[in-house]
Specification:
about 130 residues; alpha+beta; 3-stranded antiparallel sheet
């Protein structure tokens, strides 16, 4: 599963992003950042032989959004999306509404392109409220 970086998650939260099916429950497939380490609740992703994440990881850590959660939010909110992979120069991610207005972001990685696009979209949504 691919997830966004902690700083990007915190920025999207600041702009009001919430995954559409967020219940507050904790599931083994979720990813967290805690004390500058990344964890899945099944265990630490790198740097340790621990098999299970300690409770402090999901109680005190930052839940990292997966691209599935971002894509679900786009769909639930009535947007469409396109992804372009440019060999040697990264990704372009485009989200568009029913009226054809597009929000575009680029990045050297898929997650950075998705973040850049979602940040622009959320800023615009917040301006229109």
């Amino acid at each position: 599963m691919i997830y966004l970086e902690k700083e990007d998650v915190l920025r999207l939260k600041e702009l009001g992003f919430r995954p559409p099916y967020e219940t507050g429950e904790v599931y083994a497939y979720q990813f967290y950042s805690h004390k500058d380490e990344e964890w899945s609740l099944g265990g630490q992703i790198t740097g340790s032989e621990l098999l299970l994440a300690p409770q402090e990881v999901y109680n005190q850590g930052v839940k990292l959004f997966t691209i599935d959660e971002i894509f679900d939010w786009i769909h639930v909110n009535g947007y469409g999306m396109r992804l372009v992979k440019n060999i040697g120069s990264g990704f372009k991610f485009i989200v568009f509404d029913e009226g054809g207005i597009e929000y575009k972001g680029t990045g050297g990685t898929l997650t950075k392109a998705i973040f850049n696009t979602m940040e622009k979209l959320l800023i615009k949504r917040n301006e229109n409220r």
